[in-house]
Amino acid sequence: LRAKACNVVTYEFENIPTSALDIIEEHAPIRPNRRALATSQDRLDEKHFLEGLGLTVAPYANVENLQELEDAVAAVGTPSILKTRRMGYDGKGQIRLKGGEQLADIWAQMDGAACVLEGFVEFAHEVSVIGARGADGQVSCYDPGENVHVGGILDTTTVPAKLSTSQRMDAVIMAGKILNALDYIGVLGVELFVTPNGLLVNEIAPRVHNSGHWTQNGCVIDQFEQHIRAVTGWPLGDGARHADAVMENLIGGDMDRVPELAADPNVALHLYGKAEAKPGRKMGHINRISPKS
Amino acid sequence: LRAKACNVVTYEFENIPTSALDIIEEHAPIRPNRRALATSQDRLDEKHFLEGLGLTVAPYANVENLQELEDAVAAVGTPSILKTRRMGYDGKGQIRLKGGEQLADIWAQMDGAACVLEGFVEFAHEVSVIGARGADGQVSCYDPGENVHVGGILDTTTVPAKLSTSQRMDAVIMAGKILNALDYIGVLGVELFVTPNGLLVNEIAPRVHNSGHWTQNGCVIDQFEQHIRAVTGWPLGDGARHADAVMENLIGGDMDRVPELAADPNVALHLYGKAEAKPGRKMGHINRISPKS
User: Fold this and answer.
1) What 3-state class would DSSP assign to A199?
2) Average pLDDT, chain A
3) Of B53, B290, B285, whose CA–CA distance to A240 is shortest?
4) Residues A234, A265: contact at Cβ < 8 Å?
5) Mutating which of A220, A226, A260, A276 best tests the B interface, going by the most B Cβ atoms within 10 A?
6) Residues B25-59 pLDDT 10s
7) Nearest CA in chain B to A288
8) I need a labelling partner for B166 at 20 to 30 A (CA). Which of A30, A52, A128, B236 fits?
9) Does this complex have an ipTM over 0.95?
């Protein structure tokens, strides 16, 4: 089993040149596969992929120049959000449009990057499904978590999420559909908006996901072990949880709360060992555990 | 907090020369302290210490020569068990006496080592308490586990143990008494026999303990983090468990069961990465988790 692990190449978000990946792939399987990474690295490709599966996404338009931005605002409307197609995370590479902005100024800020304009969606809340698919095609999903963002950064994930039984099933089925379609091996996060018209896919992340950190203290097999099990061809854990959990990110000055949090009997503390606490920097997270409801 | 951690010296069972410890102690606190280690490294000193606290131990006698062995067998009776005072673990350095043995032969096998003869105790089962004491004197104990040994080696620990509420309280109070008396900082294991006449101390182990491995998947703060919290002066976790658990050691050929165990949804697998599986060698353990009863 250990030998098997050594023959597998895995990665998170790295910009490895295609030529290097070609060479690596001659010697070892790359898991998750390159298509999964390519699809999720580009917001436009990702939306096309999801629509191809019959899943719903927010209204959007492709934007590659000022004219297209003006057309996009006319079609999608405001409020809306202009995002670079590639390399954005935690709210970076994004500009919110309320309406009435000078679009030429907005477009100048994107510095020529290809973008998509996404319409705002009226949603009750955001949930995410952390799913895994094994080398044998077995799929296993954790219970969906409910996410609250502050300033574009994930603040808390609460499990169980406010979902009806059928919504919970829908969410897990959507994740399974995505995993299968990508022939994915590993752990993947799917962010969903809960709307009056059903679940809508916000984005997918081809990796362990911040909103899955609660599994470290709520499940027998957490998302990190699950990912390694998947890429090394081990059987997957089943994702059952034995506790309710609230994950809370510790960002920047939240580090001042560590002594108090360390003394809280129901809090498991996970610190990343980063030397300096800067505003907006993820320094760690806590999982607040309570009996399963 | 990190700086604090670096200024503390901790250890498990190492034979560090006294002269070296003297020098170390001039520069940093040694936690757990040297008295705790010295007491628990010597079976006779340990029994004197426990009796001094008013705790009950099995009948025993000091044995330093053949004459004392003959006297001890007369006093303690058989069945009984001759153990070296120092350096024994997992049933090593022990000879069981059924009665009728040639005591000169038995004594020759001990190779001159100072010993104690311990009488067998009629007990229903063995339990252990994993307790911790912080730098501020705070004490926190995990729920006692019930231990089953096979061939002198721990096979399983089951939580909750078969104990009445008052027995459970007694067990935890005894552990607290020991931690306080030793001015102990860190995690310590206390093995207890459950007898018709109450709880009897088998032995103490000044470290994280095999019978506490279930805490890795049954508690928010496991015994390993608890130990580090204690020696670095952090607040202790409270030891509450959110699940029932059965820890099972994987010994030697048990490694053949790993593929099957990895596929069991309620099993968390912990492997030690040892290269070779020898008979009697601890290769890993599993925690089988179920909802809290």
Assistant:
1) strand
2) 90
3) B290
4) no
5) A220
6) 888 899 999 999 899 989 999 999 999 999 999 99
7) B220
8) B236
9) no
Residues in A touching B235 (Cβ below 8 Å) = 259, 262-263
The answer to whether B242 contacts A291, with C-beta atoms less than 8 Å apart, is: yes
Q: Dmax of chain B from CA atoms?
A: 60
CA distances from A103 to A67, A68, A84, A96, B37 (A): 9, 11, 15, 12, 73
Q: Which of residues 180-219 of B touch A (CB under 8 A)?
A: 217
pLDDT given for residue A52 in this prediction:
97
pLDDT tens-digit profile of A213-229? 999 999 999 999 999 99
From CA A272, how far away is CA A251, in angstroms rounded?
11
- Considering only residues 227 to 286 of chain B, which have any Cβ-Cβ distance to chain A shorter than 8 Å? 229, 234-235, 237-238, 240, 242-243, 258-259, 262-263, 265-268
Pairing of strands A115-119, A60-63: antiparallel
- The token pair that represents A271 in the structure block: 């610190």
Residues in chain A with CB shorter than 8 Å from the CB of B258 are: 1
**Global pTM value:** 0.85
B17 touches chain A (CB under 8 A): no
Say which residue the tokens 């999801």 belong to.
A50
Instruction: Judge whether B172 and B129 are in contact, CB under 8 Å.
Output: yes
CB neighbour class for A140 (10 Å; exposed up to 12, middle 13-18, buried from 19) = buried
**B116 CA: distance to closest CA in chain A (Å):** 42
Element (H, E) at B290: strand B282-291
The pair phi, psi for residue A124, each rounded to 5°, is -70, -45
Residue B292 or B133, more confident: B133
Question: Who contacts A209 (Cβ-Cβ below 8 Å, separation ≥6)?
Answer: A128, A130, A187, A188, A189, A223
Torsional sign, CA A92, A98, A99, A102: negative
CB contact under 8 A, B263 and A229: no
3-state secondary structure of A203: strand
What local confidence, expressed as pLDDT, does residue A24 receive? 83
Q: What is the tens place of the pLDDT at every residue in A11-67? A: 444 566 777 778 888 888 999 999 998 999 899 999 999 999 999 999 999 999 999
- What span, in angstroms and rounded, lies between the C-alpha atoms of A54 and A257? 45
pLDDT in tens, B113-145: 999 999 998 888 999 999 999 999 999 999 999
Contact B209, B223 (CB under 8 A): yes
Tell me the average pLDDT across A253-265.
94
CA distances from A262 to A228, A248, A256, B2, B237 (A): 29, 14, 11, 14, 8
Hey, what are A101's tokens?
Answer: 């902005």
pLDDT in tens, A120-159: 988 889 999 999 999 999 999 999 999 999 988 999 999 9
Separation of alpha carbons A161 and B185, rounded Å: 41
